[in-house]
Design brief:
Keywords: Endoplasmic reticulum, Glycoprotein, Isoprene biosynthesis, Membrane, NADP, Oxidoreductase, Transmembrane, Transmembrane helix
Structural class: alpha+beta
CATH superfamily of the largest domain: 3-hydroxy-3-methylglutaryl-coenzyme A Reductase, Chain A, domain 2
CATH class of the largest domain: Alpha Beta
Strand content: 15-25%
Catalytic activity: (R)-mevalonate + 2 NADP(+) + CoA = (3S)-3-hydroxy-3-methylglutaryl-CoA + 2 NADPH + 2 H(+)
Family: Belongs to the HMG-CoA reductase family.
Number of helices: 18
Shape: elongated
Bound molecules: adenosine-5'-diphosphate
Largest sheet: 9 strands, mixed
CATH architecture of the largest domain: Alpha-Beta Complex
Subcellular location: Endoplasmic reticulum membrane
CATH topology of the largest domain: 3-hydroxy-3-methylglutaryl-coenzyme A Reductase, Chain A, domain 2
Enzyme class: oxidoreductase
Length: about 550
Amino acid sequence: MDVRRRPSKALRPAPKEPSSAPEPTGAKASDALPLPLYFTNALFFTLFFSVAYYLLLRWRDKIRNSVPLHVVTFSELAAILSLIASFIYLLGFFGIDFVQSFIARASNEAWDLVDEEEGEDHRHRLMAFSPSIADHIIPAVSSAEDEEIVDLVVKGTIPSYALEEQLGDCKRAVRIRREALQRITRRSLQGLPLDGFDYGSILKQCCEMPVGYVQIPVGIAGPLLLDSFEYIVPMATTEGCIVASTNRGFKGIYASGGATSTILRDGMTRAPVVRFPSASRACHLKFFLDNPSNFQTLADEFNKSSNFARLQGVQCSIAGKNLYMRFSCTTGDAMGMNMVSKGVENVLAYLRNQYPDMDIISISGNFCSDKKPAAINWIEGRGKSAVCEAVIKEEVLKKVFRTSAATLVELNMLKNLAGSAVAGALGGFNAHASNIVSAIFIATGQDPAQNVESSHCITMMEAVNDGKDLHISVTMPSIEVGTIGGGTQLASQSACLDLLGVKGASKELPGANSRLLAKIVAGSVLAGELSLMAAIASGQLVQSHMKYNRSTKDVSKVGS
Ligand code: ADP
């Protein structure tokens, strides 16, 4: 059997096991019978058919002899009772089996639908539908033995995703799901830890159907001297060199007097798409939205679902009969996707009354644009737009980085600017901003998928002070970070935010913590750019990677 499965199918009911497969060990209804199952089945089968045959013969004789059918002898009465008893047994035994296999098939077909559609909406619909099946099947599952529940999950009788709700114990649900998964796939999850994690903290918040957690080491780099404050930056990565290199960059920035940063803009966006019967009607709404005198009405609608979401503006784009409206708002210390989406829903409800011919196609029409490379974020910004700069002194360039301003300026021009232009880059005018962004994102509980636009960065270098020193800057228009909500509240991520002094909501000024986090991300990218570019300029790149990124272990012997 091919055990490689698509993840979404991994917890389906197991296919019929081959004869060599281990028997599930959970208790079954048949365990209650005093005789072996095959014996009782054979007994009742024989009884059913022999008494049915006997009664048919008696019926035929009575018709031939004109004896009334309701006049029965003692032996006929016994035969009728035996027929009823064996019928009840067979119905009970095979009937229940049929119903169970019918439900399992229905659940399987539902999963097939998910696979085909690959749509979040469908998945949500199924999640809402299927637990009610489980409710009917196992009314008191929490009191059953683990082994019995594992067996039911393997058979598909209990949907794996309903375990937390059914058991009321998150850790137990994870343990049972792991065991069922191992039996279905016949793969061991030994290396994936189970203990040491609070599964209750991720329920309905961060991850569905957990079976454990992946360990990612967190290194620290710093201090980063930024706007006269020092920060120790946690970085979660499995790529050797990244922390060490950023740390070297911090050292050079520190020795040169520190870096300075500015937040240019702060606004999360969501852009629904609506359709009209004609392009002119779509334009009518665009002009309505563009008109400054309508802004307050829109803002009143938008702002009513949150104390922190405050509408900043709406940018419209037309494609024929379709209108894309990019709403932008402040979101306090939250990254803000939930907030902005709720605000947009309010406005859409209002607009639907004003424009009854408006058809709402999607709350997100990709003009937002979330987690996809898009010029709109690069040009207009999304989340926090930040710029960070430093002047690195000649002696620091020489001592710490073993290079010079002139060498770095030329390399930056040829690699980060011209080279990226040749490659047709979109927001990728840098050496490795995404390495630093991803590592800080993972450590601090940000959404790693937003690394796509959060890593947009243009690195500029210029020789200053008679060409001796280096002015370096990074401009990052779409850093999407929050210090409250999502993964930021989990224990380890929260500890990393605390290390930076930006944990949770800012008490003094809503949004101050998340903006500071964006500045720290930009400052760290500045250090990463400086250090990597210097390593390339001085020919150290391969050497340092060989030192930090290649262990002496024979990796070919690890794993199969
Ligand atoms: P997101 O919009 O990033 O998905 P969530 O909606 O999950 O974030 O979390 C934000 C929640 O935190 C909201 O319910 C909001 O009211 C609350 N909150 C409390 N203080 C703040 C703050 N300073 N900034 C933003 N949100 C805050």
